[in-house]
Design brief:
The complex is a heterodimer of chains A (about 325) and B (about 280).
Chain A: E1 8-16, E2 21-30, E3 35-39, H1 46-54, E4 62-69, E5 72-73, H2 79-85, E6 90-93, H3 97-100, H4 107-119, H5 123-136, H6 142-145, H7 155-167, E7 173-177, H8 185-202, E8 205-210, H9 213-219, E9 222-227, E10 230-236, H10 237-242, H11 247-254, H12 298-302, E11 313-314, H13 323-328
Parallel strand pairs in A: 3-8, 3-9, 6-7, 7-8
Antiparallel strand pairs in A: 1-2, 1-4, 4-5, 9-10, 10-11
Helix pairs in contact in A: 4-5, 4-7, 7-8
Chain B: E1 15-25, E2 37-48, E3 53-58, H1 64-71, E4 79-84, E5 87-88, H2 94-103, E6 104-107, H3 111-114, H4 121-131, H5 138-149, H6 165-177, E7 183-187, H7 195-212, E8 215-219, H8 223-229, E9 232-237, E10 240-245, H9 247-252, H10 257-264, H11 269-274
Parallel strand pairs in B: 3-8, 3-9, 6-7, 7-8
Antiparallel strand pairs in B: 1-2, 1-4, 4-5, 9-10
Helix pairs in contact in B: 4-6, 5-6, 6-7
Classes of the chains: A alpha/beta (about 325), B alpha/beta (about 280).
The complex binds adenosine-5'-triphosphate, adenosine-5'-diphosphate, iron/sulfur cluster and magnesium ion (2 copies).
């Protein structure tokens, strides 16, 4: 074990396939037991970041930079070393549990298999632990449910099975990529609550990937906002969500309808960010957000801003004015 | 500030269902056993008026999409009435049924799968006019509709993959508007879109209701989105309407258990920051 080294330390990570670069120089650190949210619209590179950390990139894609975890640089790991690590020190919960569970194996077997492979527990002990895990995940009648095939149970139950598998070996880091996006809203909160409790109990670190700001606010202590493959703002959730400095983060927060910003007479208009995310093969020069930004200047159109600041970091030439800025001066 | 609505929302319903029920026969459990019946909709009363946006919410499987299949006439109800412009759709004549079909159009969740990827946008837009055999100056209609949804003329020559999700949903809305419908049914129209562009589509739908006097039936799982877009909400649970009211009243003081469950499931940035979202 690595003592108090961070659960993961990502430095200048880039992910590309020779034609396009989907992740462009991303750095972040999650301490042991820390919880970071990664937010951004679809195509911003969140899943590619996650897959790079898991060594599961699609064919033809490669990684540059370094990813320190458990005393090694994951970027330099062989496929074999990676596969003995997945599920043990680092594990992942995917958006669609149906396609990530094996359709022809009973769900109980799939959990036990992970336990036996990584802990060397015998069959009986692994089965016992499986039942305990399923009970902890509040799955009904676990003794019978172990015998079900993935297609025989509901989406919410499948996702809880995936979480049970991911947590089985007390990993240092759990990556959850849109874990509740495919679930009914009424089930979503229950699954988040269970994930929250189980991660807490194990003291694992969590990287929560989602485009849903309320989920980040509920689950994480820090957040990184991604836009066009880069982190444009990063810091404590409380600060980033209350006083964002980057105009993209501000826009995301403003376009979120809430029960409180809806006028009773129906006259309210939601703010929307004009335009669209630029395609990777045709990124604007300077700040990638400049064509959609209300504060863009010539400098923004020519020079790319780097993350700067203490605590809250933003990559912006003309940060949003905020109450905290005034207070700090 | 007084809002002037050219289409009073207390007018006569444009499209309604009365005491409507629908059931499906499931697979036989044994060879000679009777086929079990699943009652999917029971005694539904529902109406939408010109210039009115009506929301439909309920947990997954509660029957929302099934109800839209009755409202568009793709399925005939087992019992009850579907009434368009005061006339029963299924006992009225063929001419009225044709008018009904072109007057009620649908926008679905995922514009990428609802638009043909090999067709230029211009061709896709003409498609409903062709299938409904509508005569007239189609080119002029296309330009009129493009203007209504805020798209450039150059969009016509392009293919779906050249657009963002929000732009594609505008195109899907444009296509639904082509036959000049009076009611638009939108089933989860923004749930596949990112938050930052979702607002573009919601604002457009609101404008269309106001400016064209369309009746809008709007389904979404995000209650804030429903409250923002509609002025009246029906809550469904297990095939029944369990509560009807103004969205904010209903979501602040839910009385039916199903509504309480939906409201209880809402997460917000504020509750998250306050640290009690998952309590
Ligand atoms: N053709 C059919 N045959 C049998 N059962 C059906 C059929 N169509 C729908 N159902 C059932 O009717 C119920 C209502 O389905 P419906 O699609 O209307 O739900 P919904 O409210 O739209 O849900 P969601 O929010 O998941 O879209 C479900 O139990 C569904 O399985
Ligand atoms: N298998 C793939 N082949 C080619 N491009 C891909 C592949 N997967 C993702 N991409 C591209 O990489 C970029 C980042 O994608 P992704 O990480 O999945 O975004 P997010 O998870 O933030 O929605 C996008 O432009 C996407 O189109
Ligand atoms: S750098 Fe310029 S364009 Fe980019 S977000 Fe800041 S102000 Fe806007
Ligand atoms: Mg993704
Ligand atoms: Mg549905």
């Amino acid at each position: 074990m690595t003592g108090s080294a961070p659960a993961i330390e990502v430095k200048d990570l880039s992910v590309g396939n020779g034609v396009v670069t989907a992740v462009r120089g991303v750095s972040f650190t999650i301490p042991q037991g820390g919880r970071m949210g990664l937010v951004g619209e679809s195509g911003s590179g969140k899943s590619m970041t996650a897959l790079a950390l898991m060594g599961l990139l699609p064919m033809g894609w490669s990684t540059h930079g370094s990813v320190l975890h458990d005393g090694v640089d994951l970027v330099k790991q062989s496929d074999r070393a990676f596969s003995s690590r997945r599920g043990r020190t680092i594990s992942m919960v995917f958006q669609d549990p149906l396609s990530s569970l094996n359709p022809v194996r009973r769900v109980g077997e799939q959990i036990s298999w992970v336990i036996r492979r990584h802990t060397g527990a015998d069959k009986k002990a692994a089965e016992q632990q499986t039942i305990e895990l399923m009970t902890q995940m509040k799955l009904p009648r676990p003794e019978q449910l172990v015998r079900a095939y993935p297609h025989e149970i509901s989406g919410g139950q499948r996702q809880r099975i995936m979480i049970a598998m991911a947590l089985a070996c007390y990993p240092q880091l759990i990556i959850a990529d849109e874990p509740t996006t495919a679930l009914d809203v009424t089930v979503q909160k229950q699954v988040l609550r269970l994930l929250n409790g189980a991660v807490n109990e194990r003291g694992s670190a969590l990287l929560m990937i989602t485009h849903d700001l309320p989920i980040i606010a509920a689950m994480c202590d820090t957040v990184a906002v991604m836009y066009a493959g880069r982190i444009v703002e990063m810091g404590p959730v409380q600060e980033v969500f209350r006083n964002p400095r980057h105009h993209y983060t501000r826009g995301l927060l403003d376009s979120q309808p809430t029960m409180d910003n809806i006028a009773l007479d129906g006259s309210a208009r939601l703010v929307s960010i004009p335009g669209m995310v630029p395609p990777l093969h045709n990124l604007p020069t300077g700040c990638a957000f400049n064509p959609r930004c209300p504060a863009a200047t010539d400098k923004c159109r020519t020079v790319m801003p780097e993350l700067a600041g203490e605590g809250l970091q933003a990559a912006c030439w003309h940060p949003v004015d905020s109450a905290s800025e005034v207070a700090a001066q | 500030m007084t809002a002037v609505t050219p289409f009073p929302a207390d007018g006569r319903p444009l499209l309604e269902v009365r005491q409507l029920s629908q059931q499906y026969f499931l697979r036989r459990q044994k060879l000679f056993a009777p086929r079990p019946i699943l009652k999917v909709l029971q005694d539904i009363d529902f109406a939408v008026r010109p210039g009115e946006a009506v929301g439909l919410v309920g947990e997954s499987g509660s029957g929302k999409t099934t109800l839209t299949r009755m409202l568009t006439g793709v399925e005939k109800p087992h019992e009850g009435h579907v009434v368009f412009d005061g006339v029963d759709v299924w006992s009225g004549g063929e001419a009225h049924r044709r008018l009904f079909r072109r007057s009620v159009q649908v926008v679905l969740q995922n514009p990428r799968s609802s638009l043909d990827p090999r067709m230029r946008v211009g061709t896709s837009l003409l498609e409903p006019l062709r299938s409904l055999k509508i005569e007239g100056d189609h080119a002029a209609r296309v330009l009129e509709v493009l203007d209504q949804v805020g798209l450039q003329k150059s969009a016509l020559e392009r293919f779906p993959h050249e657009f963002s999700g929000g732009q594609l949903q505008r195109i899907a809305i444009a296509r639904a508007l082509m036959p000049n419908p009076r009611v638009l049914i939108a089933d989860e129209p923004v749930s596949a879109l990112d938050v930052s562009i979702q607002a573009q589509v919601l604002n457009l739908l609101k404008d269309l209701v106001r400016d064209l006097g369309l009746g809008l039936v709007f389904i979404a799982h995000d209650l804030s989105v429903v409250a923002y877009t509609t002025s009246k909400v029906y809550v469904m649970s297990s095939g029944k309407i369990v509560e009807v009211g103004k969205p904010l009243d209903l979501f602040r003081n839910p009385s039916a258990e199903a509504t309480q469950n939906l409201v209880g499931a809402v997460l917000s940035v504020e509750s998250g920051l306050a640290g009690n979202a998952l309590a």
